[in-house]
Amino acid sequence: MTRYTRTAVWLHWLVALVILVQVPFGWYLDEIPRGTPERGWYVNLHKSIGLTLGIAIVLRMGWRWRHRPPALPERMRAWERIGANATHLALYACMLIMPLTGYVASNFSRWGVKYFNAIQLPPWGVDDQHVYAFFNGAHVVTSYVFVALIGVHALSAVWHACMHDGILGRMSLTRRG
Ligand code: HEM
Ligand code: HEM
Prior knowledge:
By secondary structure, this protein is mainly alpha-helical. The chain has a single domain (6-171), classed as Transmembrane di-heme cytochromes, Chain C (Fumarate Reductase Cytochrome B subunit, Up-down Bundle). It is built from four helices and two strands. Helix 1 (6-29) packs antiparallel against helix 2 (37-66) and helix 2 crosses helix 3. The mean pLDDT is 95.
């Protein structure tokens, strides 16, 4: 069966792995008391990982745009194809919205981003609580949608693995050919 290229597979797993760390890290931020230096340190780390992830995601999408994915197996039913394509599209949308809303929100607060707690990226927006709350709210709401989609996606992968239909192998790091 045809499979994703080596680059597509590595980009998929690299980005997926960092997202699977970044999401619980975001939840952990809720536990850190506001106004403490500790919070600033962790929030900046979350922002820095998020921005770096955003760049990796754009690169991944650029690669995807220029390289057609392998065709889905003929035996897959219409609803399965529609479901897979819709989920992938929605995952890409969330992968863009998450870093974008986080970054834009940060620029409407006086803190901006201190990249890896070393390089200050001064905010280009005004310090406006309402604008910040809007983009931050979008960040939080999208994170729930994202987690739900990742759950559906991972469960479908497990289902395909149980069916031994070769779909998982298309994105496998080890299987060649
Ligand atoms: C943060 C987590 C993840 C994200 C954002 C993500 C995203 C995506 C996207 C967007 C695609 C479509 C690739 C394309 O055609 O451009 C894809 C494919 C795939 N993913 Fe994930 N993924 C994640 C985690 C996982 C996990 C945990 C598994 C396995 C348990 C998995 C297994 C697969 C497989 C097998 C495919 C290929 C499907 C096919 O052959 O059409 N992914 N993933
Ligand atoms: C793919 C990238 C990203 C993911 C997956 C992600 C995920 C999350 C999650 C799950 C939360 C917790 C939401 C909740 O409270 O339920 C969060 C919070 C937060 N994120 Fe991100 N994030 C990403 C990128 C960014 C970026 C680039 C920035 C800023 C430059 C950022 C800034 C923040 C801030 C400030 C919070 C705390 C919000 C609050 O407690 O009010 N994130 N993020």
